[in-house]
Design a protein that fits this description.
Elements: H1 4-9, E1 32-33, H2 41-44, E2 51-52, H3 63-74, H4 98-110, H5 116-127
Antiparallel strand pairs: 1-2
GO molecular function, one term: alkaline phosphatase activity
Pfam families: Alk_phosphatase
Protein name: Alkaline phosphatase
Length: about 130
């Protein structure tokens, strides 16, 4: 898998058919763009405006889409499953001003969880 379309097309993943998604050659493109951070930039310089990153187009799956697909595929296992989500902001991306970084991380980090905890609780109850 290398894009959102191939992720959506997957219907099965298990020990006999393992699945690996590689959606970027390096770091996935961040959702927002802004100027590079500078020393005291949040104090000495005017507020910045973030803009959507054109490299983060519909071919790049969101964390929410990847999470939904993982839960969809893993929930087929009657013995249950363990799913660990990890969001990592790489060091070379932390060059954005503090606010841009916080907004981007919060925007990306919270979306997969909205409304999904109830689904996970129902599945956990079913297997307990």
């Amino acid at each position: 898998m290398s894009d959102a379309a191939s992720l959506n097309a997957v219907t099965e993943a298990n020990q006999q058919k393992p699945l690996l998604g590689l959606f970027a050659d390096g770091n996935m493109p961040v959702r927002w763009q802004g100027p590079k951070a500078t020393y005291h930039g949040n104090i000495d310089k005017p507020a910045v405006t973030c803009t959507p990153n054109p490299q983060r187009n519909d071919s790049v799956p969101t964390l929410a889409q990847m999470t939904d697909k993982a839960i969809e595929l893993l929930s087929k296992n009657e013995k249950g499953f363990s799913c660990k989500l990890k969001v990592h902001q790489s060091i070379n991306r932390i060059t954005l001003r503090i606010l841009v970084g916080k907004l981007a991380r919060r925007s990306i980090s919270t979306k997969p969880y909205n409304g999904r905890w109830n689904s996970l609780k129902r599945m956990a109850t079913r297997w307990s």
